[in-house]
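Progress note, sequence design subtask.
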């Protein structure tokens, strides 16, 4: 055996999914690529310290055990520093169920398709669509507010136009009075220049 030959190198472990491997649009908008948000949550969870956030024993849910540390170490790094309640609200929009633990300081999040090792199904997760009635109600509310603002602006414009017309009318009356006064003064001056009439 040739002792000068280097020992066989051990096979490198399979690379873990990394947050850097997720392609994000140049704008960084998760609303345009909602499936990427779940991939980022998965990667952030995999990289988190177990005392901060971790999978449950059966891998069907994950738990946030230390909210202040989760905000500092996970949300600040991976989610542009949003607060925990905002993060929980976003997950709720994706259909996650949140349960508060008995100690009152930890929360479990569960979704049927968000499981440990279930990376391939993450692109299927998308935000829940709002009911048509809720969307229409919101639009009607927005239109009602807009109509109210337009009516208010229209009333203000009418008042402004009325004020301008009144000022213009008063100015014309003032100019007419000045013109009449000037004519009277001219007549008086003309009579003064003629003087008293002389008898023959």
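Output:
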């Amino acid at each position: 055996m040739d002792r000068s030959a280097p020992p066989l190198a051990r096979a490198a472990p399979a690379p873990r999914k990394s947050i850097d491997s997720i392609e994000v649009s140049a704008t960084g908008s998760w609303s345009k690529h909602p499936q990427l948000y779940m991939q980022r949550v998965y990667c952030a969870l995999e990289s988190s310290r177990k005392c901060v956030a971790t999978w449950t024993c059966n891998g069907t849910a994950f738990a946030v055990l230390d909210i202040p540390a989760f905000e500092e170490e996970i949300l600040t790094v991976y989610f542009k520093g949003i607060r925990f309640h905002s993060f929980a609200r976003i997950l709720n929009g994706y259909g996650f169920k949140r349960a508060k633990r008995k100690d009152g300081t930890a929360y479990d999040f569960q979704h049927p398709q968000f499981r440990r090792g279930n990376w391939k199904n993450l692109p299927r997760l998308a935000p829940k669509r709002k009911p048509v009635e809720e969307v229409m109600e919101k639009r009607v509310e927005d239109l009602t507010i807009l109509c109210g603002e337009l009516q208010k602006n229209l009333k203000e414009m009418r008042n402004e136009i009325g004020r301008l017309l009144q000022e213009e009318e008063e100015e014309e009356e003032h100019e007419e009075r000045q013109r009449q006064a000037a004519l009277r003064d001219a007549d008086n001056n003309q009579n003064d220049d003629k003087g008293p009439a002389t008898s023959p």
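Helices lie at 34-47, 67-78, 84-93, 132-194. Work on this subtask will continue into the next period as scheduled.
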